[in-house]
Amino acid sequence: xxxxxxxxxxxxxxxxxxxxxxxxxxxxxxxxxxxxxxxxxxxxxxxxxxxxxxxxxxxxxxxxxxxxxxxxxxxxxxxxxxxxxxxxxxxxxxxxxxxxxxxxxxxxxxxxxxxxxxxxxxxxxxxxxxxxxxxxxxxxxxxxxxxxxxxxxxxxxxxxxxxxxxxxxxxxxxxxxxxxxxxxxxxxxxxxxxxxxxxxxxxxxxxxxxxxxxxxxxxxxxxxxxxxxxxxxxxxxxxxxxxxxxxxxxxxxxxxxxxxxxxxxxxxxxxxxxxxxxxxxxxxxxxxxxxxxxxxxxxxxxxxxxxxxxxxxxxxxxxxxxxxxxxxxxxxxxxxxxxxxxxxxxxxxxxxxxxxxxxxxxxxxxxxxxxxxxxxxxxxxxxxxxxxxxxxxxxxxxxxxxxxxxxxxxxx
Length: 412
Ligand code: ATP
Ligand code: MG
Hints:
Bound molecules: adenosine-5'-triphosphate, magnesium ion
Number of strands: 23
Radius of gyration: 24 Å
CATH topology of the largest domain: BirA Bifunctional Protein, domain 2
Number of helices: 12
Structural class: alpha+beta
CATH superfamily of the largest domain: Bira Bifunctional Protein, Domain 2
Number of domains: 2
CATH architecture of the largest domain: 2-Layer Sandwich
CATH class of the largest domain: Alpha Beta
Shape: globular
Helix content: 25-40%
Strand content: 25-35%
Largest sheet: 9 strands, mixed
């Protein structure tokens, strides 16, 4: 992408009304714009990052047998009345049509996925099934001041699973938990798994995936010697400084964290509500056990900015950066065009700042936008037929030839 052709440009200053780092940096660098509290437009750079995160999640969901679908956001009130959610879920956005009918905007999709899958799940041979989708969710949140981390409209991946019995559910639950940890690791995040109550969904066990960050809203206790982690709000039997109840090797530490994902055992709540029954191998009719598995995609993008930035701007992990290379030329447009074309022909995502502005401004915008590599083409570098390469977090640019740099990227 050439910056001279882009409508969206980075700003000199962060927005004054922004309270969080992700809001400030994402607006200043030109990734998002806020329409109102908790509602954002994703601009070209922001959309690229959102899609990169989605792709990692999609690969891991497909790898564990997920089948991607796309369910609607606009729901008839009847399905929410069937499960009681219409009256009990306070964050549900409700609206009326001009013919006075009631509708809800999806805050979650159990009420849609269960009657949909009922058409396809008739016998034990049709199980297990794991449909998932990536879709915008709506929640009437009271406080939406954490930038894109708490939206009233936000992007979620939600998977739902249907199983013949508890044993099969338990088997898949572990697989899903491992896939989640793999996803967060690929996104550059160290996610801790807490045990927590099932919240609105059921009395069964659920697990939250928490990333330590001051911008989060969850108080957790964790052990640095093992993977023990508890949500303090749910599991008040523990306190800071207690010996770790799991390994006894260290003392529990407290921190604030952001919930990036959540998995629930839904039991038979929704299969019963929608009368989804299957025939077992002996001909008995039973209600399948269901699970649901959410990841807050837009929140995760915000958490990544909170974790990976410095006073100059964002530092994107390489798997989700909007571009791998940020190319800057110092009065070498022909040579830069050649290098730009080479990157593109090798499938390397490249942003070329070909604007007619001073080079200092280009350097500070490169730091603000936060691509992993800055490549400078100048008369000096070209004297030896080289480019100047600098990692986003390094202070030391290095001279090398283009082939060597591309080779390094490919082996990275
Ligand atoms: P929270 O406790 O933060 O309100 P939740 O437990 O109600 O979240 P879930 O129903 O478990 O959320 O949704 C699955 C995932 O969607 C969460 O783990 C979180 O990452 C994300 N999420 C939930 N609410 C929001 C929101 N308002 N804005 C952005 N992401 C959200
Ligand atoms: Mg949750």
